[in-house]
Design a protein that fits this description.
binds adenosine-5'-triphosphate; ATP-binding; D-Maltodextrin-Binding Protein, domain 2; binds 1-O-pyrophosphono-5-O-phosphono-alpha-D-ribofuranose; nucleotide-binding; alpha/beta; about 220 residues; amino-acid biosynthesis; cytoplasm; 5-stranded mixed sheet
Protein backbone atom coordinates (compact mmCIF):
# COMPACT_ATOMS: atom_id res chain seq x y z
CA UNK A 1 0.00 0.00 0.00
CA UNK A 2 1.14 3.56 -0.71
CA UNK A 3 0.87 6.36 1.85
CA UNK A 4 -2.39 8.31 1.49
CA UNK A 5 -2.03 12.04 2.11
CA UNK A 6 -5.11 13.78 3.56
CA UNK A 7 -5.76 17.51 4.02
CA UNK A 8 -8.10 18.18 6.94
CA UNK A 9 -9.93 21.45 7.55
CA UNK A 10 -8.50 22.90 10.77
CA UNK A 11 -11.01 23.30 13.59
CA UNK A 12 -14.02 21.15 14.40
CA UNK A 13 -13.52 18.87 11.41
CA UNK A 14 -9.87 17.98 11.99
CA UNK A 15 -10.48 17.35 15.69
CA UNK A 16 -13.36 14.99 14.99
CA UNK A 17 -11.64 13.16 12.12
CA UNK A 18 -8.39 12.71 14.07
CA UNK A 19 -10.38 11.29 16.99
CA UNK A 20 -12.11 8.84 14.61
CA UNK A 21 -8.84 7.77 13.03
CA UNK A 22 -7.20 7.21 16.42
CA UNK A 23 -10.23 5.23 17.68
CA UNK A 24 -10.03 3.17 14.50
CA UNK A 25 -6.45 2.12 15.32
CA UNK A 26 -4.32 4.68 13.48
CA UNK A 27 -1.51 5.92 15.69
CA UNK A 28 -0.10 9.42 15.15
CA UNK A 29 2.79 9.61 17.64
CA UNK A 30 3.38 13.36 17.28
CA UNK A 31 -0.30 14.47 17.16
CA UNK A 32 -2.16 16.27 19.90
CA UNK A 33 -5.03 18.79 19.63
CA UNK A 34 -2.79 21.42 21.19
CA UNK A 35 0.22 20.83 18.93
CA UNK A 36 1.31 23.62 16.58
CA UNK A 37 2.62 21.01 14.11
CA UNK A 38 0.73 20.91 10.79
CA UNK A 39 1.71 17.53 9.38
CA UNK A 40 1.46 14.15 11.07
CA UNK A 41 2.45 10.69 9.87
CA UNK A 42 0.74 7.56 11.13
CA UNK A 43 3.10 4.95 12.61
CA UNK A 44 2.07 2.30 10.07
CA UNK A 45 2.99 4.53 7.13
CA UNK A 46 -0.55 4.28 5.71
CA UNK A 47 -1.63 7.87 6.33
CA UNK A 48 -0.16 11.34 6.37
CA UNK A 49 -2.40 14.16 7.62
CA UNK A 50 -1.99 17.86 6.87
CA UNK A 51 -4.01 20.53 8.67
CA UNK A 52 -5.04 23.48 6.50
CA UNK A 53 -7.52 26.36 6.64
CA UNK A 54 -10.96 25.25 5.38
CA UNK A 55 -10.99 27.20 2.08
CA UNK A 56 -7.53 25.81 1.22
CA UNK A 57 -8.43 22.10 1.48
CA UNK A 58 -9.72 21.91 -2.11
CA UNK A 59 -6.69 23.88 -3.35
CA UNK A 60 -4.32 21.24 -1.93
CA UNK A 61 -6.43 18.42 -3.37
CA UNK A 62 -6.96 20.05 -6.77
CA UNK A 63 -3.23 20.60 -7.21
CA UNK A 64 -2.34 17.10 -6.03
CA UNK A 65 -0.42 18.33 -2.97
CA UNK A 66 -2.63 15.92 -1.03
CA UNK A 67 -4.57 12.94 -2.41
CA UNK A 68 -7.81 13.59 -0.56
CA UNK A 69 -9.31 16.21 1.73
CA UNK A 70 -12.08 16.58 4.29
CA UNK A 71 -13.95 19.89 4.39
CA UNK A 72 -17.43 21.31 5.01
CA UNK A 73 -19.77 21.37 2.03
CA UNK A 74 -20.49 25.02 2.95
CA UNK A 75 -16.90 25.86 2.04
CA UNK A 76 -17.02 23.88 -1.21
CA UNK A 77 -20.21 25.68 -2.27
CA UNK A 78 -18.92 29.11 -1.26
CA UNK A 79 -15.55 28.64 -2.95
CA UNK A 80 -17.20 27.00 -5.98
CA UNK A 81 -14.89 23.99 -5.96
CA UNK A 82 -16.72 21.26 -7.81
CA UNK A 83 -15.15 20.89 -11.22
CA UNK A 84 -11.60 19.86 -10.46
CA UNK A 85 -11.99 17.50 -7.52
CA UNK A 86 -14.28 14.52 -6.98
CA UNK A 87 -16.62 14.59 -3.99
CA UNK A 88 -16.49 10.95 -2.91
CA UNK A 89 -18.27 10.75 0.47
CA UNK A 90 -20.66 12.55 2.78
CA UNK A 91 -19.19 11.85 6.22
CA UNK A 92 -22.24 12.95 8.19
CA UNK A 93 -20.13 14.95 10.63
CA UNK A 94 -20.03 18.74 11.05
CA UNK A 95 -23.74 18.84 10.33
CA UNK A 96 -25.15 22.36 10.33
CA UNK A 97 -27.56 24.61 8.43
CA UNK A 98 -27.01 27.91 6.68
CA UNK A 99 -29.59 30.37 7.97
CA UNK A 100 -30.72 33.96 7.59
CA UNK A 101 -31.07 35.51 11.04
CA UNK A 102 -31.87 38.86 12.61
CA UNK A 103 -32.62 40.52 15.94
CA UNK A 104 -35.51 38.67 17.61
CA UNK A 105 -38.82 40.50 17.19
CA UNK A 106 -37.27 43.21 15.02
CA UNK A 107 -38.15 42.60 11.34
CA UNK A 108 -36.19 44.96 9.06
CA UNK A 109 -38.08 47.15 6.54
CA UNK A 110 -37.99 44.87 3.49
CA UNK A 111 -38.49 47.71 0.99
CA UNK A 112 -35.13 49.31 1.84
CA UNK A 113 -31.77 48.00 0.67
CA UNK A 114 -30.69 45.54 3.34
CA UNK A 115 -27.14 45.10 4.64
CA UNK A 116 -26.16 41.49 5.20
CA UNK A 117 -23.20 40.40 7.35
CA UNK A 118 -21.71 37.01 6.47
CA UNK A 119 -18.65 34.79 6.09
CA UNK A 120 -20.38 33.40 2.96
CA UNK A 121 -20.91 36.30 0.49
CA UNK A 122 -21.55 34.10 -2.55
CA UNK A 123 -24.18 31.93 -0.86
CA UNK A 124 -25.81 35.02 0.67
CA UNK A 125 -25.88 36.92 -2.64
CA UNK A 126 -27.42 33.98 -4.49
CA UNK A 127 -30.10 33.56 -1.84
CA UNK A 128 -31.15 37.22 -1.82
CA UNK A 129 -31.01 37.52 -5.63
CA UNK A 130 -33.22 34.45 -5.95
CA UNK A 131 -35.68 36.04 -3.54
CA UNK A 132 -35.53 39.42 -5.36
CA UNK A 133 -34.09 41.43 -2.46
CA UNK A 134 -31.63 44.20 -3.12
CA UNK A 135 -28.75 43.82 -0.64
CA UNK A 136 -25.30 45.07 0.32
CA UNK A 137 -23.12 42.21 1.49
CA UNK A 138 -20.50 42.88 4.16
CA UNK A 139 -17.92 40.07 4.26
CA UNK A 140 -16.96 39.16 7.83
CA UNK A 141 -14.56 36.52 9.11
CA UNK A 142 -16.24 35.30 12.28
CA UNK A 143 -18.44 36.32 15.24
CA UNK A 144 -21.00 37.22 12.57
CA UNK A 145 -23.80 37.31 15.18
CA UNK A 146 -22.36 40.59 16.41
CA UNK A 147 -23.17 42.50 13.21
CA UNK A 148 -26.92 43.14 13.76
CA UNK A 149 -26.30 44.02 17.42
CA UNK A 150 -24.01 46.94 16.63
CA UNK A 151 -25.78 48.26 13.52
CA UNK A 152 -23.29 46.81 11.03
CA UNK A 153 -25.96 44.68 9.32
CA UNK A 154 -29.75 44.29 9.18
CA UNK A 155 -29.49 40.51 8.84
CA UNK A 156 -26.81 37.83 8.87
CA UNK A 157 -26.27 34.66 6.87
CA UNK A 158 -24.39 32.13 8.99
CA UNK A 159 -24.17 28.51 10.10
CA UNK A 160 -26.45 27.29 12.85
CA UNK A 161 -26.08 23.98 14.64
CA UNK A 162 -27.66 24.05 18.10
CA UNK A 163 -28.91 27.65 17.81
CA UNK A 164 -27.22 28.57 21.08
CA UNK A 165 -25.04 31.32 19.56
CA UNK A 166 -28.10 32.99 18.01
CA UNK A 167 -30.05 32.66 21.27
CA UNK A 168 -27.21 33.98 23.43
CA UNK A 169 -27.12 37.09 21.26
CA UNK A 170 -30.88 37.72 21.04
CA UNK A 171 -31.15 36.67 17.38
CA UNK A 172 -33.65 34.40 15.63
CA UNK A 173 -33.72 32.41 12.40
CA UNK A 174 -35.74 34.05 9.59
CA UNK A 175 -35.15 31.38 6.95
CA UNK A 176 -33.03 28.32 6.25
CA UNK A 177 -30.99 28.27 3.04
CA UNK A 178 -29.24 24.87 2.94
CA UNK A 179 -28.08 21.93 5.08
CA UNK A 180 -24.38 21.04 5.15
CA UNK A 181 -22.01 18.33 6.38
CA UNK A 182 -18.36 17.39 5.94
CA UNK A 183 -17.37 15.81 2.62
CA UNK A 184 -14.40 13.78 1.46
CA UNK A 185 -12.94 15.11 -1.78
CA UNK A 186 -10.36 13.47 -4.00
CA UNK A 187 -7.78 14.43 -6.61
CA UNK A 188 -8.77 12.74 -9.92
CA UNK A 189 -5.28 11.28 -10.53
CA UNK A 190 -5.02 9.97 -6.96
CA UNK A 191 -8.48 8.46 -7.41
CA UNK A 192 -6.96 6.15 -10.05
CA UNK A 193 -3.47 5.62 -8.60
CA UNK A 194 -4.47 5.11 -4.96
CA UNK A 195 -7.84 3.45 -5.38
CA UNK A 196 -7.19 0.76 -2.73
CA UNK A 197 -5.90 3.24 -0.15
CA UNK A 198 -8.87 5.56 -0.75
CA UNK A 199 -11.34 2.69 -0.46
CA UNK A 200 -9.69 1.68 2.84
CA UNK A 201 -10.07 5.14 4.40
CA UNK A 202 -13.61 5.48 3.06
CA UNK A 203 -14.57 2.22 4.72
CA UNK A 204 -13.08 3.40 8.06
CA UNK A 205 -15.14 6.61 7.84
CA UNK A 206 -18.25 4.71 6.68
CA UNK A 207 -18.06 2.51 9.81
CA UNK A 208 -18.10 5.64 11.97
CA UNK A 209 -20.99 7.05 9.97
CA UNK A 210 -22.94 3.82 10.45
CA UNK A 211 -22.24 4.10 14.19
CA UNK A 212 -24.08 7.45 14.11
CA UNK A 213 -21.11 9.74 13.58
CA UNK A 214 -20.63 10.06 17.32
CA UNK A 215 -17.34 10.00 19.18
N1 LIG B 1 -21.58 25.15 14.91
C1 LIG B 1 -21.24 24.22 14.04
N2 LIG B 1 -21.65 22.98 14.19
C2 LIG B 1 -21.32 22.02 13.34
N3 LIG B 1 -20.53 22.22 12.26
C3 LIG B 1 -20.09 23.44 12.08
C4 LIG B 1 -20.42 24.49 12.94
N4 LIG B 1 -19.80 25.59 12.53
C5 LIG B 1 -19.13 25.21 11.44
N5 LIG B 1 -19.30 23.91 11.16
C6 LIG B 1 -18.74 23.10 10.07
O1 LIG B 1 -17.39 22.88 10.40
C7 LIG B 1 -16.54 23.52 9.45
C8 LIG B 1 -15.36 24.11 10.16
O2 LIG B 1 -15.84 25.10 11.03
P1 LIG B 1 -14.91 25.75 12.15
O3 LIG B 1 -15.70 26.83 12.78
O4 LIG B 1 -14.33 24.71 13.03
O5 LIG B 1 -13.74 26.30 11.28
P2 LIG B 1 -13.59 27.71 10.62
O6 LIG B 1 -14.82 28.53 10.81
O7 LIG B 1 -13.05 27.50 9.26
O8 LIG B 1 -12.47 28.22 11.55
P3 LIG B 1 -11.90 29.67 11.68
O9 LIG B 1 -12.84 30.60 10.97
O10 LIG B 1 -11.91 29.82 13.18
O11 LIG B 1 -10.56 29.55 11.06
C9 LIG B 1 -17.44 24.53 8.73
O12 LIG B 1 -16.98 24.78 7.42
C10 LIG B 1 -18.77 23.83 8.75
O13 LIG B 1 -18.86 22.87 7.70
O1 LIG C 1 -25.75 27.04 16.49
P1 LIG C 1 -24.49 26.88 17.28
O2 LIG C 1 -24.31 25.51 17.82
O3 LIG C 1 -24.35 27.94 18.35
O4 LIG C 1 -23.26 27.07 16.27
C1 LIG C 1 -23.22 28.14 15.37
C2 LIG C 1 -21.95 28.93 15.49
O5 LIG C 1 -20.82 28.10 15.17
C3 LIG C 1 -20.06 28.72 14.15
O6 LIG C 1 -19.15 29.63 14.68
P2 LIG C 1 -17.70 29.25 15.19
O7 LIG C 1 -17.79 28.57 16.50
O8 LIG C 1 -16.98 28.51 14.12
O9 LIG C 1 -17.04 30.65 15.42
P3 LIG C 1 -16.75 31.85 14.39
O10 LIG C 1 -17.79 32.86 14.73
O11 LIG C 1 -15.38 32.28 14.74
O12 LIG C 1 -16.87 31.34 12.97
C4 LIG C 1 -21.11 29.52 13.37
O13 LIG C 1 -20.50 30.55 12.60
C5 LIG C 1 -21.99 30.06 14.47
O14 LIG C 1 -21.49 31.23 15.03
Amino acid sequence: MMTLHIALAKGRIHKQVMAYLQESGYDFPTYSEESRKLIFADRSGQLKVTLVKSPDVAVYVERGATDIGIVGKDVLVEECFCADVYEIADLNIGRCRMAVAGVAGNEPELTKRLTIGTKYPRIARQYFEKNHYSVDIVKLNGSVELAPLVGLADLIVDLVETGSTLKANGLEVRDYIMDFSARMICNPVAFKLKKREIEAICSVMEKRKAAGGKR
